[in-house]
Write a structure and sequence with these properties.
Length: 344
């Protein structure tokens, strides 16, 4: 039986997905410094996880290498679980990914999450450049995940030629590995691999609301998880006044329109978004997406988030907030931490 929102709130873990957005008129250097500052704040506020996204060849999002930035993020925080949201595994050797995250686990014991995904996180040309001629691509994703799990757990990989491979350094606790996705396929991958599943609702808000039921019904216990576990990632903007929250969200509206055009670019200012000459089709696209976000006052956003969590049956919530003003983004997370009563 689903709990009403007011009873579900105390047990709901809140986490953060940070894409390290580059603001119009700013730089990637500033974007990464804003990520570090926001992670420190969210650590103090009592958020549970802080994940970094992976995107390539982008002038909009600075986070091209989560594992590198996590090395710094761990030193800047004390309690947060920190991780990748996610590593796009088809680009890389599972052995090297296992090494990277075992090293991070050695540096920050008991705090490392390894989220993996199948999407390229870039255009086809850049994806090919990342693979550098390798023919091991997305079609091999389930086997790559199985080998990665084996290497993290110091067991024998299933792939021929890797039987004796062991990834070092050895660790007392295995990084928490998650499957990320935005489709029914990823729900199946997570269930078959026996992994927790994080769904990117901010990417695919039209998904069937029983996606986690599908995952739970197919779930098979694995070496790292005995019971199914889920997280729902929602785009969120919170401000003291509802009008201000929606005003701040105009930057996201224009960025979304430009994304549909194939060239999102840096996050525009609110004024850029106000001045943009939207076509009727663009306005319809924005309006269709309006109810798929959690935007408003702390009470309104909390109610929306808990409603989505109940509708989907999510065990955790992850929040993605992007505004042109970094202070407004930080304020959004602070307001929600207070509204949910997070333990600082």
């Amino acid at each position: 039986m689903c709990l009403p929102p007011d009873l579900a709130a105390p047990n709901m873990k809140l986490s953060v997905l940070d894409q390290s957005p580059i603001r119009s008129g700013s730089t990637a250097t500033a974007a990464l410094q804003e990520t570090l500052a926001l992670a420190k704040q969210c650590d103090e506020l009592g958020y549970h996880r802080y994940w970094l996204a992976e995107h390539h060849a982008s002038d909009a999002l600075a986070g091209c290498s989560p594992e590198v930035l996590l090395g710094r993020l761990g030193a800047e925080t004390r309690r947060l679980r920190i991780g990748s949201g996610g590593i796009m595994l088809p680009h890389y050797s599972p052995y090297k990914v296992a090494e990277n995250f075992k090293l991070l686990e050695t540096l920050y014991p008991g705090r490392i999450d390894l989220g993996v995904g199948r999407a390229p996180g870039t255009d086809p040309f850049t994806a090919a450049a990342l693979r550098y001629g390798s023919t091991v691509g997305p079609q091999h994703f389930p086997r790559m995940v199985a080998d990665l799990q084996a290497l993290l757990n110091d067991t024998q990989p299933a792939t021929r030629g890797m039987e004796g491979a062991r990834a070092f350094p050895l660790v007392d606790e295995v990084p928490e590995i998650w499957m990320l996705g935005s489709s029914e396929d990823s729900a199946g991958f997570a269930a078959d691999a026996g992994l927790p599943y994080s769904f990117a609702y901010f990417i695919n808000p039209s998904i069937r609301t029983d996606i986690f039921q599908l995952y739970r019904g197919r779930f098979q216990p694995g070496p790292n998880l005995q019971e199914p576990h889920t997280s729902l990632c929602v785009f969120t903007i919170c401000a003291e006044q509802e009008d201000e929250a929606w005003r701040l969200s105009k930057s996201r509206d224009l960025w979304f329109v430009r994304l549909l055009q194939g060239a999102p670019g840096p996050v525009p200012t609110v004024q850029e978004a106000i001045d943009y000459p939207y076509a009727d089709a663009e306005l319809r696209a924005i309006e269709a997406n309006r109810d798929k976000r959690a935007v408003g006052t702390p009470a309104q956003v909390k109610a929306k988030l808990l409603s989505l969590a109940e509708e989907f049956g999510a065990d955790e919530l992850m929040l993605l907030t992007i505004t042109h003003d970094p202070a407004a983004r930080a304020r959004s997370y602070a307001l929600l931490a207070a509204e949910f009563g997070l333990a600082a």
